[in-house]
Each structure stands twice: as structure tokens, then as C-alpha cells.
Design goal:
alpha+beta, 3-stranded mixed sheet, 3 strands, 18% strand, elongated
């Protein structure tokens, strides 16, 4: 039962933060296309780890610095939007799962190509 509640809270935090990102006035955040990919909240609701992905990977570190400096504002606005006993402290981290997924796809395509070349080589006598 508690896991289902935490999952719902994670989704709600993700939804609210995605809309709040548009209101941040820090140019490091405002000028970068960011998306919140995943939220992990502790069971006591004290901390929330927010995984952020940037479209332009060169600006990702600066955007994370901007998000960390705006964490107090985002936490206050999140507390006003959500009716929770505790508003979690926000910890922002870069999410490299998209890059990791593309690397896995490249490896799988390379294996497919090698198998295709081996099959073609076996067919000719």
C-alpha cells in the first residue's frame, strides 16, 4: 500500500515540477530544454531525487547548477501545490539513461550486422 502511495507522489511531484520549470527565471534553466525523466522520493517524504535530462548535453551541467540554486523556490511552490505533511528536499541529478539506451541500441545493431554478414558468408559454397 505504501509503495503505491509513494509512486503516486512521485508522479505528482514530476508533473508539478515540469510545470514549475517554466517559471524559473534563472537563464541557465530558462534557456535550456529540460525534461524531468524520473522522481524518487524517500518513504518518509524528506528527500526527492529528481532526474533531469537536457536536450543539449553541453548545457546540462550549467542547467543542473541553475536548478540547484532554484531548489528553494521550487520546493516552496511544490509545497503550495501539493497537500503533503512534508515537502521533500529536492536533489537534482543528470539522467543519462537516454544516452545509455542509445549505446545499447548501437551495440545490438552491430551484433545484428555481424550476424547478417556471417549468414551471407555461410550461404556461398
Amino acid at each position: 500500500m505504501a509503495k503505491n502511495r509513494i509512486h503516486r507522489i512521485n508522479e505528482e511531484v514530476q508533473r508539478e515540477l515540469a510545470s514549475l520549470l517554466r517559471t524559473v527565471k534563472d537563464p541557465r534553466v530558462k534557456d535550456t530544454m529540460l525534461s524531468i525523466t524520473h522522481v524518487d522520493t524517500t518513504t518518509d517524504l524528506r528527500y526527492a531525487k529528481i532526474y533531469v535530462s537536457a536536450l543539449d548535453k553541453t548545457q546540462e551541467k550549467e542547467a543542473l547548477k541553475g536548478l540547484k540554486s532554484a531548489a528553494g523556490y521550487l520546493r516552496r511552490e511544490l509545497g503550495a501545490a501539493l497537500q503533503l505533511r512534508y515537502t521533500p528536499e529536492l536533489v537534482f541529478e543528470a539522467d543519462d539513461s537516454i544516452a545509455h539506451g542509445t549505446h545499447i541500441l548501437e551495440v545490438l545493431r552491430g551484433i545484428e550486422e555481424k550476424e547478417g554478414l556471417l549468414e551471407e558468408g555461410d550461404e556461398t559454397p
